[in-house]
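Holo prediction — protoporphyrin IX containing FE.
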Amino acid sequence: MRQEVQQWREAGRPNNEVPGSRQRSIQTDPGQGRQQGSQTKMTSWIGLIADMMDNSTTTEVLVASIVFAIVFLVIRSQRVKLPPGTKKLPGPMPYPVIGNLLSLSKNPHLSLTKMSETYGDVFQIQIGTKPMLVLSGLETLRQALIRQSDEFAGRPDLFTFRLVGDGQSMTFSSDSGEVWRARRRLAQNALKTFATSPSPTSSNSCLVEENIITEAEYLIRKFKELIDDKGEFDPYRYVVVSVANVICGMCFGKRYNHDDEELLNVVNLTDEFGAAAASGNPADFIPILQYLPNSSMKAFKEINQKFLAFMQKFTKEHYKTFDKNHIRDITDSLIQHSQEKRVDENSNIQLSNEKIVNIVNDLFGAGFDTITTALSWSLMYLVAHPNIQQRIQDELDQVIGRERRPRLSDRAQLPYTEAFILEMFRHSSFMPFTIPHCTTKDTMLNGYFIPKGICVLINQWQVNHDPNLWQDPFKFCPERFLNNDGTMVNKTEMEKVMIFGLGKRRCVGEAIGRMEVFLFLTTMLQQMQFFKQDGEKLDMSPQYGLTMKHKRCHLTAKLRFALLTN
Ligand code: HEM
């Protein structure tokens, strides 16, 4: 089918013709005779307008006509010519100017899931004047993102994305060719090197594992201090610092204490960042909104500037103290790549120093908010389901005991804990969409023609709540991931959970993300039992964003036994 599209393109379309332009002339100008007619009509329109100049409603009519003409032309310019044998994308009728914006509601993941019940796994909506493809259904996502990964691996050129990292972000910029591929390989290699380098203090673990366990220990001590002092704590406020310390250690060789203003100023910006960078921000699709006074856009610009300043401080320090014989962290390793102009043995691509060293911003930015959100949802589910918390603790007591800390190598022996983490990812679906993609060429999907350059929303939330994939999808039930006797996690069920994306754009930090969630949780649960406060109602309704958070809430906890000291 894709070959057909290509043949159609080569055979039928003059060089500069925009897809859709021929269909437009067929639809609005079906015969040559009509051309003449339309000219006459044009003259009579001008005459009509001239006559009306005398009357009092002239200006209103003129303005209305111009607006109508602009809207008409814009809508016409969006139409796409379909190759023979392909189906037109289904989707709701858009309104002029705003498109389907009003149908998106405060929770676009829910509205688009509902629409997928009517229009299917592949449909089109329009935000403002821009069309957008919405993909749902596990098989459709696997088809697009794995089997047709090249065609669906682009990123759209969006206004908000251009503000991230001064337009240099590997994750958000619209580079999707060789430059992005080379940067992504650098990011993957840097993470691999610093995630797997051996620990100087323990022969059977790696440095990151040691760092995570140490941070989890500090966190438990902090929780204990707060409980002794006030009887309660806001978990998010402290978890975010511990998690940020892990990625800060990897990227810059630095850690902060829980009250450090410099770090808090940066990590507390994530809610605003997530709200603006979330899929479907109207400012990305209705250009006039970018120029109107808009407090959330102003905040978003400031957040990006603050974040960049924080990063630049570290990179400057690293350049000053760089020693190629002593590579301390990811920033040093990227500086080394940029100095040796050694990006990749597999390609001849040349990257600017800026493009190489800025990769650290992507890793730091993505590395703390996601994991903090996962851990804070985990704590919410644990206090909402004390029986589940108890079952995890029984498993930890049985497999690890109380004399030593949990390790990554214990994972296979802790199936219920693993099942809990998977169910937390699935049920919360706190990344309801991946970061938006865009198509890199004309293609086909499920029989539909998909034009090059269309923005693609990938609805992970829909897959995680699809009644065709999950029994009772709204029930929180870790057991759904276990085999019959509860001794193993079912791999097929596990692979149905969509939280890290799929294919060429799949999260580069997935291994570290899974490792951190497991080690923080098991270390905390081995030593502490968490509760909601007496009389406090848990509000677990998610607030839409790039990562969805629950409302901040204060919890309490007690030590299960005297703190471990080694
Ligand atoms: C539980 C934790 C995490 C979750 C749920 C998560 C999820 C995601 C998702 C859904 C995407 C977008 C995929 C797409 O656009 O198709 C993504 C991209 C990305 N993630 Fe993660 N992530 C997590 C942790 C991390 C960590 C720890 C790092 C770095 C240390 C990281 C680095 C990145 C980067 C650099 C990208 C952009 C990849 C690209 O555009 O090529 N993530 N992540």
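READOUT: The beta strands are 122-127, 130-135, 437-438, 443-445, 448-450, 455-458, 528-532, 555-559.
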